[in-house]
Write a structure and sequence with these properties.
Blueprint: H1 4-7, H2 15-29, H3 33-41, H4 48-59, H5 61-83, H6 90-101, H7 104-117, H8 121-135, E1 139-142, E2 146-149, H9 153-166, H10 175-189, H11 192-216, H12 227-236, H13 245-248, H14 252-259, H15 272-290
Antiparallel strand pairs: 1-2
Helix pairs in contact: 2-7, 2-8, 3-6, 3-7, 4-5, 5-6, 9-15, 10-11, 10-15, 11-12, 11-14, 11-15
Length: about 290
């Protein structure tokens, strides 16, 4: 059935999607925004001011100021409502505003922490994943890990799922699996430093996969061989064709330019879209390399 929801453009975890997720938390964990924020702050932040200062430090002063104004405005509006006879908890209103407008990685972590504390992650997983799918957010909710990057439906089907199957093979169960899962975990954290590290881990996972394939094929390589040299060994051994170089080495140039080497006077910056694309490309490379195991 074609309806408005099916035809709208992807919104990601925007304000509307976050409200839907919070409804799931309320239904499954029986806790509201104030409790969610308290669980998110626990052992991380000394209170709202400490958190808002951290947002400014990590995401920029403009973002910290924007969020501070939104939270303060929600608190003031609720206080005014009480003075006019309406019953609204200012702290609850401020907490809801913070959750609806905080950096997305913080929102995802807050939801995971709240559901984990209430032992409700498994019960909420299916509906939160459905919300992400319906809103075009590239995340699935999994018990016990919380939000995991899966990309859109096509990326999940064509790249992430095959890569997830590949890293479960005994040959890839060591470094390949650890590094690829680390790349997805860094994406979920989502800070500028984490996004840069996601690229690094994606490249490392591909290099590890090439080494595993070479070892399985009985082909020697040097301990210090770069990714391009490892790929050449695969080509020379007749394991992969030369024309698939861009597929296999998809993460290497971005990693070297944005994550693997120093940026000089201006630090490297990696945005979420870049990191997601490179991790997805790395998934495709790993899935392909798994087919070259004997």
């Amino acid at each position: 059935m074609i309806d408005t929801a099916a035809q709208r453009a992807a919104t990601g975890l925007d304000e509307g999607a976050r409200k839907l997720v919070l409804q799931v938390v309320m239904g499954q964990a029986r806790i509201g925004p104030k409790e969610v924020v308290a669980l998110f702050f626990r052992d991380r932040f000394g209170g709202p001011d400490d958190y808002l200062e951290a947002v400014g430090n990590v995401w920029g002063e403009a973002e910290g100021f924007r969020l501070r104004q939104i939270v303060a405005g929600a608190h003031t509006d609720a206080e005014m409502a009480i003075s006019f006879g309406e019953r609204r908890d200012p702290r609850e209103a401020a907490s809801l505003a913070l959750l609806l407008h905080s950096p997305e990685p913080d929102f995802r972590l807050a939801i995971s922490e709240a559901l984990r504390a209430a032992n409700a992650m498994e019960a909420a997983a299916e509906r939160i994943t459905a919300i992400c799918r319906n809103r075009g957010a590239p995340w699935a909710f999994d018990h016990p890990d919380g939000f995991e990057y899966v990309g859109d439906e096509e990326i999940e089907r064509e790249l992430i799922r095959p890569a997830s199957a590949a890293i479960k093979r005994p040959e890839f169960a060591g470094g390949v699996r650890q590094e690829f899962e680390a790349a997805r975990a860094e994406l979920a954290k989502g800070t500028p430093g984490d996004l840069k590290q996601a690229i690094v881990e994606a490249g490392a996972a591909i290099e590890s996969a090439m080494k595993v394939v070479l070892e399985a094929r009985g082909t020697a390589y040097g301990a210090g061989d770069t990714a391009s040299v490892l790929f050449n060994h695969l080509v020379d051994a007749g394991v992969v064709p030369r024309h698939l170089q861009n597929l296999v080495l998809v993460a290497m140039t971005p990693r070297n330019r944005k994550g693997g080497h120093g940026g000089g006077a201006q630090p490297h910056e990696v945005n979420a879209a870049e990191a997601e694309a490179i991790v997805a490309g790395g998934a495709g490379a790993i899935a392909y390399l798994a087919t070259r195991l004997p």
